[in-house]
Amino acid sequence: NLVTGEFAHTLYANTTFGKEPITIDFRNLVRPPVWEVNPYAFEHSMVMIAELFVDSTLSKDTYDYIGVFENNTLVGSAKIEGKKLNANDTTYLAFITVYSNRATHNDLTFRIWDASEARILGKTITEVAFNANQVVGNLTSPKKLYASKDIFNEYPIEAGWNWVSFNLNVPNKP
């Protein structure tokens, strides 16, 4: 099993000039969840340009994803993209098209794929209402999505009998 994370190693090649160092930087990632939306299944859409903050830190990880859900149905997703504003400034944004079969509602929730931790974060503080044909945020003033490090896990339970066990680390009480 490979360990996930970012690594830098120096290899040495024996050449006629001696030992030549070759530095290799690489990142080993876990496959992200498949968050693909069929836009033809919905009547309405809106666009959101967002910055993602995890525990108040701006995500600059272009392997992070934002999933938008309406009552546990995926209705939008995008990955973080680095966009150059000018020669000195880069902004990290997600360009999300959100779909729905209702023109307006307040049932949107967000899940975040944190690539560096290889887990889904399920608690966002930011609320966004769906309004058909609306644009939320822009390049200079994006919608700020704040997520905590609370992990989201799904445990599928089938009809009939299931065995479920949760290991808890409970501190000793006197």
Strand content: over 45%
Return Rg in Å: 21 Å
H/E element string? Answer: EEEEEEEEEEEEEE
Q: SS-based structural class? A: mainly beta
> What is the straight-line distance between the termini?
41 Å
- List the uncertain runs: none
Principal-axis shape: globular
> Biggest sheet, open or closed, and with what strands and sense?
6 strands, mixed
Please report the number of helical segments: 0
Report the strand count: 14
What do you see in this structure?
This protein is an all-beta fold. It contains no helices and 14 strands. Strands 3, 4, 7, 8, 13 and 14 form a 6-stranded mixed beta sheet that branches. Strands 6-5-10-11 form a 4-stranded antiparallel beta sheet, with no helix packed on it. Strands 1-2 form a two-stranded antiparallel ribbon. The radius of gyration is 21 Å and the shape is globular.
